[in-house]
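Reply to thread "Modeling small-molecule complexes from scratch"

Following up on the discussion above, here's a worked example others can learn from. I took a protein sequence and the SMILES for flavin mononucleotide and predicted the complex. Inputs first:
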Amino acid sequence: MDMSYFKNRRTVRKYKNEAIPMDKVKSMLEDAMRAPTTGNMQLYSAIITTDNEIKQQLAPCHFNQPQLMQAPVVITFCADFNRFNKWCEYGNAVPGYDNFLSFMTATIDASIYAHQFNTIAELNGYGCCHLGTTNYNAPQIAKILHLPKFVVPIITLTLGIPDGESPQCERLPVEAVIHMETYHDYSTADIERLHKEKEELEINKKFVEENGKTHLAQVFTDVRYTKANNEYFSKVLHDFMVESGFKLPE
Ligand SMILES: Cc1cc2nc3c(=O)[nH]c(=O)nc-3n(C[C@H](O)[C@H](O)[C@H](O)COP(=O)(O)O)c2cc1C
């Protein structure tokens, strides 16, 4: 098997103005269902959006990221205990899945399924982009897509035929993520060494400069993922999780 795909993969945000046959999308979604899930419960659903009007409604939920309107297909992957709960009730079994653990379980299933689909799509020559903004505006997305109780949108993928070559992003060296046998915490010298190459990339230096910062980490803390935003959207997501039926224990 040619493994070069894994070394070469990258996110694609620019797509040709060409439709993708729906049979192809569905067959890739079917193949992705071979992904592992908790107890083989398959606690996910995938909502396919191709209609321009619905995409237009979804766009502000994803902060108008241009790839959403450009992509011929948008798929919202949801943590879904609705179908399983209904099957339990049908089978005269009492479901105990209205809690945080079950929300996490279904979230993990949905995330693995989404990325399995992403891999299959890329191996078929398509380009994809995950939209994590789904987590920020889950209540609005759920309303637009008519999601019932026990269904929470987790991740959105834009899918299309790549228009041009997308650049490949850097990664930390592998020793940054591997810990042998037990976790070995990082010294300041480790942190400096492991991030040196990333920090010295021209593109990242430009990023620091353009944002008027003195270090790349500040672009994350002060611009991209701020404490204020994280706290605000945490509350929104938490409240929506509870509203969807996944309550925290008393
Ligand atoms: C959970 C998740 C959320 C993401 N959200 C966004 C997003 O909202 N917009 C975007 O352009 N890229 C998004 N991405 C793509 C990342 O920016 C991208 O994977 C990362 O920069 C590394 O680039 P690469 O995938 O090309 O290697 C997301 C990726 C993941 C896994």
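What I'd highlight from this example: The CA atoms of residues 26 and 48 lie 9 Å apart. The first strand starts at residue 44 and ends at 49. Questions welcome below.
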